[in-house]
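Re: the multi-chain job from yesterday

Posting the exact lines I submitted so nobody has to dig through the queue logs.
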Amino acid sequence: MEIVDILISASFWAAVIRIATPLILATMGELICERAGVLNLGIEGIMVAGAFAGWMAVYSGTGLWMGVAVAMVVGMLFGLLHAALTVPFGLSQHVVGLGVTLLATSSTYFAYRLALPQVTSPPKIAAFQAYEIPILSDIPVLGQALFSQTPFTYLAFALVAATGIMLYRTPLGLAVRAAGESPAAVAAQGLSVTGIRMGAVIVGSGFMAMGGAFLTMSAFDSFFFEMVNGRGWVAIALVVFGSWKPGKALLGAVLFAGFDALQIRVQQTSLGADIPYQIFLMTPYILSIVALILVSRRAQVPAALMIPFNKGER
Amino acid sequence: MRLEPIANPSFARSVVPPALAIAATVVIASLLAMIAGADPFAVLGLIIKGAFGTKFALLETLNRATPLIFTGLAVAVAFRARFWNIGAEAQLYAGALVTVVLGTGALPWPGFALIPTLALGAVLAGALVLLVPAILKTRFGVDEVVTTLLLNFIFLLFISMLLEGPLKDPMGMGWPKSARLIADARLPRMFEGLRLHWGFGLAILCAVAVWVIQTRSTLGYEMRAVGLNRAAAAFAGIPVNRVLVKTALLSGGLAALAGFSEVAGLKGSLTLDLSPGFGYTGIIVAMLALLNPLGVIVTAMFVAGIFVGADSMSRAAAVPTYLADMMLATALLLMVLAIMLTRFRVRRE
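And the result, structure tokens for all chains:
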């Protein structure tokens, strides 16, 4: 009974959308990289860097949207590093990606310790506030959940739409998708596979960093170590779950967030009191693995994913 | 820009890029020290002195290198077959778990029987933990990168649950900590009076054993073939999936020994901070060693030295210890680039 009460409350669905937002941004970022043929395992570290950079910018006096831009630029710089090593040089995307995650995470912690050497608890910023869209936010449950979020969440949904339109309705998107399916065909058209792939990784990394920034600038108002906590890896699973399609990946992120929000609430019920809380915390990760098993049989992986392209080689 | 393979790389070709990578890492570390407002030469000096300068420092470095040799070997074995085991952290904790479950009194045996049993139990547990992603990969085609990464989070929560539940030490003042191992379960010291336990000896032994397997056995040959080209290996009649599963069992078992050795050799009990990321650092150790098992011994000491040195440097100079992690990540990225440049020439179009 308690679970039904949870499921029909507007606050639950508002939480689902809030929890989904960083995953949506990160998943779109990873999806853009993979559609162009590059697996970006730098995602976890880039999210950490974005979370810190955006928050730090706002803490040192810039506006909120400027903070988002700073996070994005920092993410793009790490994306540039990843792209430079994996695309023209064709280095192992696994090793470089993990290296970028280690570098982005450690340089963030290094910068944090330098910027705030004395603090025991990190300072707070004035984070994004919920903005209720007139009329729409008056619709019971669904409207309350969808249309009384922070502007950052609206931006995330807009970016999903933009990604979908870019990928399927523009020549640029065609080139990106072709770079991930058949790079030789792209090169035969006189386009630069290197340029397209690098661009995709850089832009995608910017999205990932925004996903991290949402955590410190909208979901919470402060930066903590370990705050990304595997969300980047979950995003990689969500890309697979969404068969590399923006709409399906969005649904996957919302579904995942739904389970996450539910486990938090079930923990507080009488049912949850008897079960160790770690079981609840595990469920999102276990669900990610289950989702991968369910879709892997019919997964339509971009054909050239993880295969470097060296012009002149056949 | 285009890459062109070099048929017969000259001596200079194979030495200069890696040397430049190391030099560049040192330069970047110096710049970071300057950003932190410290004298870069002093910082580098403090790191080296803190890692290798005294007998105490050297022993500390060897102790820190021990788990890194195990996790480095685990990664080297797996990556050689291009099985991306990023889950050494979970396998390490699986090994540690078996060690405390069996070693805190459940088996009241003398040391000569108990210690090998614990090690074997740990190996089995680690192998089992990695068997899950291996089967998911070979049976269902699920990518092992994501599953091994996610299993790290799942397993750490599982350990946390046990440490606050059935494994919690009643004498632990409420801390989430297991009971201590019985005396017979502890690894003895290798040399009288020196603070270095037999886990280090076991690590060296494992490195040699892995080297023998890789260079002298059929399995080693098959693992390399599977890593070089899966389709060609299958065409040549190598049972690719079975080789991948065997690789996973070996890799998981090796990573679990890191947990066994940390608990039985050093800590004596299990806590949630047993490993400060030894599983992930094993990737750096293995890559810097070019996946060579004997090289892993050297690079593990190097990496351990940087961590131990940075710890003591950070106490003396006001530079965050994260400098060590940044140096290692930089070294990793530059080294994979350098290795590529020893074998390919970069041509402008």
